[in-house]
């Protein structure tokens, strides 16, 4: 199975679009206490975090993320460090940004950022949680499990599926990660890492077909 960098095989497009749309929480953006950017291979997290800061959606911005096998080559100094550098280079004041450089999964992103905010005596009753597009639902479910009292809004850099694929440059990697994040909706709820989320039958069917098509490198 081979693809060009930004082309979805025609026989899989409908299923990929189904998962892509499912993971977008479609939350309305409004001002909050803190913006939180979750580390990943996607620089779009830093872009949306910077844009929303300039739109005065929050006075404080926290980036969280160490490295993972999918990010070490892209962000050798660490995800949060590179995100911070991008934000500062695009006009966010350095003193408005906190970083956690230790988190290696979504649960740690939430827990370590919460501790970081407490350490700096920043009260966060509401947050915008920014992630790669297909991480939104899992990030939301994880946050509501670990930090149930906070009002959480999810956001991502606003790109279409095809534009996102072009920005990443590796279609199979993105589809594999979409499939992996879909699997984690049920699995992480079962393990107690996240609150349960409804998974429509059409999403389950699309997930199964993509697994059968060997988009499986990110399954757990």
Number of strands: 5
Q: What is the domain tally?
A: 2
What is the gyration radius calculated from CA atoms? 17 Å
Question: Beta fraction of the residues?
Answer: 5-15%
- Widest sheet: strand order? 3-2-1-4-5
Pfam families: DUF218 (PF02698)
InterPro entries: Cell_Envelope_Assoc (IPR051599), DUF218 (IPR003848), Rossmann-like_a/b/a_fold (IPR014729)
Protein name: DUF218 domain-containing protein
Main attributes?
DUF218; 11% strand; disordered N terminus; 220 residues; alpha/beta; five-stranded parallel β-sheet; DUF218 domain-containing protein; 45% helix; Rossmann fold; Cell_Envelope_Assoc; Rossmann-like_a/b/a_fold
Could you explain the architecture of this structure?
With 220 residues, the protein is of the alpha/beta class. The longest helix has 20 residues, at 171-190. The chain has two domains: 10-23 and 160-212, no CATH class; 34-155, HUPs (Rossmann fold). Mean pLDDT is 95; it is low at 1-5. The chain has helices at 13-23, 44-54, 79-89, 106-119, 136-146, 161-168, 171-190, 201-212; strands at residues 34-38, 60-64, 97-100, 126-130, 151-155.
Q: Could you outline the blueprint of secondary structure elements for this entry?
A:
Layout: H1 13-23, E1 34-38, H2 44-54, E2 60-64, H3 79-89, E3 97-100, H4 106-119, E4 126-130, H5 136-146, E5 151-155, H6 161-168, H7 171-190, H8 201-212
Parallel strand pairs: 1-2, 1-4, 2-3, 4-5
Helix pairs in contact: 1-7, 1-8, 2-3, 4-5, 5-7, 7-8
């Amino acid at each position: 199975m081979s693809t060009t960098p930004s082309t979805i095989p025609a026989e899989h497009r409908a299923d990929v679009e189904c998962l892509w749309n499912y993971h977008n929480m479609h939350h309305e953006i409004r001002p909050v206490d803190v913006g939180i950017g979750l580390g990943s291979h996607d620089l779009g997290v830093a872009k949306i975090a910077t844009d929303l800061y300039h739109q005065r959606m929050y006075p404080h911005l926290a980036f969280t993320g160490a490295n993972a096998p999918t990010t070490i080559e892209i962000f050798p100094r660490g995800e949060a460090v590179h995100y911070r550098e991008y934000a500062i280079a695009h006009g966010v004041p350095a003193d408005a940004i906190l970083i956690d450089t230790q988190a290696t999964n979504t649960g740690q992103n939430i827990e370590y950022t919460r501790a970081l905010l407490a350490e700096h005596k920043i009260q966060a009753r509401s947050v915008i949680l920014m992630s790669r597009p297909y991480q939104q639902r899992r990030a939301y479910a994880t946050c509501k499990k670990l930090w149930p009292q906070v009002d959480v809004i999810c956001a991502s850099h606003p790109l279409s599926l095809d534009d996102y694929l072009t920005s990443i440059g590796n279609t199979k990697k993105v589809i594999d990660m979409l499939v992996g994040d879909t699997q984690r909706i049920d699995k992480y709820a079962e393990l107690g890492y996240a609150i349960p989320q409804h998974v429509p039958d059409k999403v389950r069917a699309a997930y199964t077909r993509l697994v059968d098509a060997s988009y499986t490198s990110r399954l757990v």
